[in-house]
Amino acid sequence: MIEMIETAAGQGISRRAVLRAGVAAGAGLLIGGTLARAAGATEVALNAWVRISADDQVTLITSQSEMGQGITTTLPAILADELGADWRRVTVEAAPFAPAYRHPVYHWMFTGNSESISALHDLMRTMGAGARHMLIAAAAQRLGAAPEALIAEDGVVRHPASGRSASFGALAADAAKISPPAAPPLKPESERRLVGRALSG
Fold first, then answer.
1. What pLDDT score does 200 carry?
2. Burial class (CB in 10 A: 0-12, 13-18, 19+), 59
3. DSSP assignment, residue 68?
4. Tens of pLDDT, residues 58-68
5. Which of 79, 53, 85, 46 is nearest to 176 (CA)?
6. Can you tell me the mean pLDDT for 143-169?
7. If you average pLDDT over every residue of the chain, what do you get?
8. 124-134 per-residue burial string, b: 16 or more CB within 10 A, e: under 16
9. Residues 26-79 pLDDT 10s
10. Phi-psi category of 188—alpha, beta or left, where left has phi over 0 and alpha has psi -120 to 50?
11. Which of 68, 196, 176, 187 is nearest to 131 (CA)?
12. How far apart are CA 45 and CA 176, in angstroms?
């Protein structure tokens, strides 16, 4: 069985466009193409796939339907790994109908062909890494430290040299004002802590 939702015909969108999709600084809006969906009053969207609330809750979006292959756990785990989120604070939501969630190759929304994880793997890493970059940039401004001296893990950005830190929730509003990088650096495989582990969905 293949579930399909066709989008209007058009060209594919760029990686930068996807990174920017969903960002509405201070307004807590999730924007995907022409669709606007209100997030919670205290939530901030860093991109179309990542929302963070002031109480450190991280909401990750999955564009694929669960069909017995662990899609709704694996894809968010890939995203959370790159983000540096605390999995215990992660909530997963289904994507709305919007261009930002189209298949990166075929450019329409569907689940099928047993290819969800392979097709969206790199995109999920890029979305997580982009949001992490924004959080680290916001923390660098707040802590007065160089971004390269900071690490994001377990829902907190830390400055190991001084012991200072700031939670994702505290940084989210400022992070949403920062332009996402076009090609954010990805974590080395050795630093990925969620992918490959048994996780409760």
1. 64
2. buried
3. S
4. 999 998 877 77
5. 46
6. 97
7. 79
8. bbbbbbbbbbb
9. 222 232 222 233 444 489 999 999 999 999 999 999 988 777 777 788 889 999
10. beta
11. 176
12. 7
Angle in degrees, CA 54, 151, 172, rounded to 5: 20
**CB half-sphere exposure, 76, CA atoms < 13 A:** 29
Give me the domains of the chain, ranges plus CATH numbers: 3-129 (3.30.365)
Sorted by sequence, the CB contacts under 8 Å of residue 55 that are 6+ apart come out as 42, 169
Burial per residue of 166-177, b for 16 or more beta-carbon CB atoms within 10 angstroms, e otherwise: bbbbbbbbbbbe
DSSP 72-114: HHHHHHHHHHHHT--GGGEEEEEPPS-GGGS-TTT-SEEE-TT
Cα separation of 170 and 17, whole Å? 26
pLDDT in tens, 132-150: 999 999 999 999 999 999 9
Per-residue pLDDT of 86-122, as tens digits, reads 999 999 999 999 999 988 887 878 787 777 888 889 9
Q: Distance (Å, rounded) from C-alpha 125 to C-alpha 47?
A: 13
d(CA 101, CA 83): 18
CA distances in angstroms from 17 to 12, 22, 75, 150, 180, listed in the order given: 10, 10, 20, 27, 10
